[in-house]
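## retry 2 of 3
previous attempt timed out at serialization; input unchanged, resubmitting
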Amino acid sequence: MQDVSVTFELSWQEFRRSHFGASPQKKSALIVVVLLFVYVLLVAAEVSHDAVLAIVIPSVGAFILLGVFWIVPRVRWNSAALNKAPRLVTIGDRGIVDGVGSLETVHEWSAILSVRETTEFFVVLLRRGADIAIPKRSLEADDAINLRGLFVTHTTMATEGRMVRSGLIPRLLLLILLVIVVMTLYVVIRIHH
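## retry succeeded, writing output
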């Protein structure tokens, strides 16, 4: 296979979509969290009979939602100037060479967990370090075919458009469990007083 070199610069919107919401599964996770928030709102309003508490609990939930889906990605974007710098990524038979500014990192194929293809990106999930999102807009038609071939040859590749971030689903389930336990404890304490 022929090496593929891609030069690109991610915008804030592309960074956010490639790392925090480029797939239907991420949107379904957001829907689950929103439904959980509505559940907390309804339970708080029904159980508390206290207008202040019925407002405070959902407000805390809204802040958590805002943090998970807006503040955390923005902090990650702003925390590293390299996120905003032009990148030169070369993919070949020996691995991936990721160049940002004067820094260059070589990732052998054994260091790559998998590659996810979405409608906008090829996202290289690394075992260690930050993932590499390669926007398809920066690829020629032949380069996209060669790139796909290199990924299929050397690593696991998912083309269904899903980006399962390790730990996302278990964290959401843990959050749901935590909210259910807290709400149950609140109801029990409320009933006994």
